[in-house]
Amino acid sequence: RALDKQERASPGNLGFTVLRLSMDHPEEDSTALASRVKGRDGAALRPDAFRKQLSRARRAFAEHLAQEVARTLEVRSRERIDEELLEVGLLPFVRDFLPADWTPQAEA
């Protein structure tokens, strides 16, 4: 939901769309997936632009997921969040997408 909301609020951001397409069609390459995407202006997305959007979407998804886990913890250190992600089996899927200096955001 966070990626969908982010996409709707940000012109040019197709993060939710490209991540969903890559999950729904894992057998397709970036050329085929890009042909499925139309930007807000109706133009097709180039394969290189699709790959860049997908890279950004994976990072954003990992950050949203880690932030959500952080909200469930009393101690919100990076180490504790990584432990929790490991315990629930998600760390291998997000580790490579979280920047080394990622820290949870303070709650508003």
How do the strands and helices of this protein lay out in sequence?
Blueprint: H1 2-9, H2 15-24, H3 30-36, H4 47-71, H5 78-87, H6 91-94
Helix pairs in contact: 2-4, 3-4
Task: Supply database-style keywords.
108 residues
Structure description:
The longest helix is centred in the middle third of the chain and has 25 residues, at 47-71. Helix 2 crosses helix 4 (47-71). This protein has helices at residues 2-9, 15-24, 30-36, 47-71, 78-87, 91-94. It is built from 6 helices and no strands. The mean pLDDT is 89. It has 108 residues and is mainly α. It is elongated.
* Overall pLDDT score: 89
The percentage of residues in β strands lies in: under 5%
Low-confidence stretches: none
Question: Can you tell me the overall shape?
Answer: elongated
Would you list the SSEs in sequence order as H and E? HHHHHH
- Distance N terminus to C terminus? 19 Å
Radius of gyration: 15 Å
Number of helices: 6
Oligomer: single chain
Percent helix, as a range, is 55-70%
Overall SS class: mainly alpha
Largest sheet: none
Give a count of the beta strands, DSSP E runs of length 2 or more: 0
How is this structure best summarized?
This protein has 6 helices and no strands.
